[in-house]
Amino acid sequence: VAERLQVDVRRGLSWREANDRMNFVGPNEFQVKEQEPLWKKYIEQFQNPLILLLLGSAVVSICMRQFDDAMSITIAIIIVVTVAFVQEYRSEKSLEELNKLVPPSCNCLREGSVEHFLARNLVPGDIVHLNVGDRVPADLRLYDSTDLAIDESSFTGETEPASKSVLPNKASAGRVNKDNIAFLGTLVRCGNAKGIVVSTGERSEFGDIFRMMQAEEAPKTPLQKSMDTLGAQLSMYSFCIIGFIMVAGWLQGKQLQEMFTIGVSLAVAAIPEGLPIVVTVTLALGVMRMAKRSAIVKKLPTVETLGCVNVICSDKTGTLTKNEMTVTTLSTSGGHIAEVTGAGYSARGDIQLRAYKGRDLDVARMGVNSMLEVGVICNNAVIRDDVLFGQPTEGALLACAMKNNMHELRDQYTRLNEIPFSSETKMMVVKCSPKYNDGRLKEEFFVKGAIEKVLPLCTQYIDSAGNYAPITKEKQADFLNEAYNIGRMGLRIIALCRGASLESLTYTGVCGVCDPPRESARDAIAALRRAQVQVKMVTGDARPTALAVAQMVGLDVLHSQSLSGEQLDAMSDDELDAIIDTVTVFYRVTPKHKLSIVKSLQRLGNIVGMTGELKFFLF
Q1: CA-to-CA distance for 607 and 163, rounded, in angstroms?
Q2: pLDDT tens digits along 118-148
Q3: Are 533 and 351 in contact (CB under 8 A)?
Q4: What is the count of structural domains for the chain?
Q5: Structural domain boundaries enclosing 602
Q6: Residues involved in catalysis
Q7: Which CATH number is 127's domain given?
Q8: What element of type H or E holds 177?
Q9: What is the pTM of this model?
């Protein structure tokens, strides 16, 4: 990448070269289309057929010296047009909000020294330094990183920060799924890195979404279409009435001027000048009622459209689920299973051991306690007043320990060393010594991570009787099989172990972590299905997690298909239109894919509602 962009990663670009590239590619920002003058936007509101008809009625009323009618019609027109103008002006401001994704400043290497300047001045080939808390200022190809984790929830919907590396990705990996790319607008949660700017502004991944949003014109709602049809019909009927009366009077030998006046009067009288203002007031009352339920409506006609929706595309994280990672299952190395109740980052809930004939529950509790001790000590999260400060998965482990009154165990140890979690090792290791001499090891390693990485380091385990036993190949296969069975339920698996040496650890068990569904989600989906409204899940999570949550909330995953973002990329519009009605779950999708899904459903004549991250669901 550095060779293609002609940059030395040790010195960065020269100021002169950067200026030349700036003149060629433009600033690193989103170019919002030049806004029309406010007066022109206001005049455009008069293009509605019913408004034009009322204007004509007001002019005719003035010509016929019916000033009271003209005044009432004019006031109604002004109210309706003004309300529509204000609503449209407010909604159009949403596109300008995307510029806030570009941070105001960044750290960039220029001519051998790190400079702090405006992010809008970045160009392809610049070397950017990232630290914890930084918002990524452009699409970067990472070439140096240390324990880098980036919050990509705005992209993928996943709450867990994505671990990044500098290793090349497979050619088949979609651009958004590449681990060596940091995307504009995402947030650095952990570690630091250096990267080469490969795309800026509208050429970035967010830029693609921005261009699609700008190209989209808001379709007219069913109410607006009905009002337009009514206006056109009334206009036609008015001219027919005038023409009929003039012809009838002419055949009877009466003066055409007199007949024209009568025809116009009847036509004006037939026009419901109060209809637009009645509709506007009714919709405004609906907006007020929805505001009391914390629902914000930017466009008045949307209130009526909500009642016409027949397909809802719902995000998973934070919509169907609580957006709070929670430990739900514990499986000790001795084969004891415990269910964990309660959700969120608090001590509310219990750890309930399954009773097995012939099993000692005291031994089972010791196994659970050993697991939780590892989860607490090999952990950097902090929970204060039910608020998590740290990684969601670590918060889930800490909250589980709080339910067993073990969350303060960290105070009994002094941390000597830490090997943070990385995408390469897929584990976190801490080396600690006890503060008090109570018979424990002088120094001990506590390890958590992916079972396929952690288990090979273990030479023994605690069996069902509470004794230490060597891990054979058969036993290792049993542990892996148990973990995979838990994973099939849509849970994220975390293996826990401890020991005096990293070469001979003691395996304590695995825990299953998930973002639990909301209690109301299943009932809400059932009510929608009874109302003949289709519900489709659209998420950035992996397929097993997506399908497991879909099944838990009552979506039909047995008799329907699931599609990934990569499959959507490979489909034409016609191919997607042909199968979209049979798909219930879309996984590993980006905001760009979500727009494609909605447009496909709309092409089939559906009225689509989208729920989830408000920043992007602007359909």
Answers
A1: 38
A2: 888 999 999 999 988 888 998 999 998 887 8
A3: no
A4: 4
A5: 309-320+517-611
A6: 315
A7: 2.70.150.10
A8: none
A9: 0.66
